Amino acid sequence: MTNSIKDLEEEAEVIFLIGTNTTENHPVIGYKIRQNVLKRGAKLIVADPRRIELADIAEIYLPFKPGTDIVLLNAMMNVIIKEDLLDEEFIEKRTEGFEELKATVKKYTPEMAEAICGVPAEEIVKAARLYAKADKAAICYSMGVTQHSKGTDNVFAIANLAMLTGNIGKPGSGVNPLRGQNNVQGACDMGGLPDVYTGYQKVEVEENRIKFEKAWGVKLPPEKGLTLTEIINEAVKGNIKAIYIIGENPMLSDPDSRHVEEALDNLEFLVVQDIFLTETALKADVVLPGASFAEKDGTFTNTERRVQRVRKAIKPRGNAKPDWQILCEVASRMGYPMRYDSPEEIFEEIRSLTPSYAGITYERIEKSGIQWPCPHTNHLGTPILHKETFTRGLGKFHPVEYREAAEMPDEEYPLILTTGRSLYHYHTGTMTRRVAAIDQHRPHNEVEINPRTAETYNIKDGDMIKLSTRRGSIKLKAKVTENIKEGIVFTTFHFGEAAANHLTNANSLDPVAKIPEFKLAAAKIEKI
């Protein structure tokens, strides 16, 4: 997030939510947004193919067709430029590439957008005016934006909209991706990506590589690695021989489960390190028992870049150990002595190698966290990014064009399937489905179907149906609801016995981020 969670509760005058079911996927942030709307009069714009809970208190609801984010966003920018609602001073002083953006969005009229994304032209105009006229307007998005074959372009379009109106670098504004898991921001900060070391220092930059080689006493490869989806594809081909999986359950969380299973079965060696025997762990040659958050010390970095302490409340059960201890022991047995006495010692190494974390110490975050970048110990942290300048200097507009998803509805598969999460379950259900009090609220998977779509197939609420794509089929209950548009169906991926990712497309990847198209697949339904 460029801004802080507090901004969404106290500062923002307009909040534009796109591709985020905030109250279900980020309930604390969803609550704070609701408080701002109900108590402080903030205006809410909700853009989502489903009528999510926050749409009920929104000033404007934009039910766009999945995969048409760019059309909607470009049309809003078309209106803002045409009606001279842009921030000319911000554009002139702090950005470059505006004329190219202006030329690109010129053809994306609200009327043209309506024909593609299904949102009435007058509603697009209202949304554009409401966002652009606010002194402080924030954008929040999540995986509904990124999990597409054009996810990178979707994010570019959001950034374009924020810069066009000067809604960057000031309170109550910004571009705010809501991260999908509790420490996913921290994992990325620590180099859990194939092309960077800690703090997003590129592996292909020789200066970075030399610094880490000196610290670790080894030679490091100059090339970036493969993403998770690419690793699975290469395992199917036999080019990847072994995989070490920590705290992940790709048998349910990755697209096209049969493809994932084929990849794992084709390995010579699979190690899974986890706190439960997941669907993926069941396929492993070796399972290493990790420790839960309550059984270890360390730090988590949350969605607003706040580094916070985590403290051990109980001893690890049985033979379980904290992940860092397991990794140290494995590395040492493989010939690289990796010895640390505590998580704090590891954090001190992180500080020494990562400029954005350099000023954060365990002592400083004993009582409350600090938001990076924090370059030195007298620095208070950075609640708002890009206040005076962007990291690259000038903010660059990236004009993007709409292109259809890789897989569109046709005669055989006439519906659009989109996927997401439920309030009652977390990710692949590894933890939440073991809690009876939680599981009783949503004990089985459902597929949401519009009443008119359901009528076409003679399906009633509660009927068992077969939901199919080109990858396979699952059986689950129908939930007939007006919250989903005609021709679109929605289901969640938490349930191994009816896993949505048995159906999603692993072959259509974003060309930059390599993320699969989780949010759109051509589908069909039939009553059982």
Question: Which helices and strands occur, and which strands form pairs?
Answer:
Elements: H1 5-10, E1 14-18, H2 22-25, H3 27-40, E2 43-47, E3 60-62, H4 69-82, H5 88-94, E4 95-96, H6 98-105, H7 110-117, H8 121-133, E5 137-141, H9 143-146, H10 151-164, E6 175-177, H11 184-189, H12 206-216, H13 228-237, E7 242-246, H14 250-253, H15 257-265, E8 269-274, E9 286-289, E10 298-301, E11 306-310, H16 323-333, H17 343-353, E12 370-371, E13 395-396, E14 415-420, H18 436-439, E15 446-449, H19 451-456, E16 464-469, E17 472-480, E18 488-492, E19 505-509, E20 516-517, E21 521-527
Parallel strand pairs: 1-2, 1-5, 2-3, 4-13, 5-6, 7-8, 8-9, 14-18, 15-17
Antiparallel strand pairs: 10-11, 11-12, 14-21, 15-18, 16-17, 16-21, 19-20
Helix pairs in contact: 4-7, 4-8, 4-10, 7-8, 13-15
The CATH architecture of the largest domain can be named as 3-Layer(aba) Sandwich
CATH fold call of the largest domain = Rossmann fold
User: What is the molecular shape?
Assistant: globular
Which runs of at least 5 residues are low in confidence (pLDDT < 50)? Answer: none
Radius of gyration: 24 Å
Count of separate structural domains: 3
Mean pLDDT: 94
The multimeric state of the shown protein is: single chain
The termini sit apart by: 45 Å
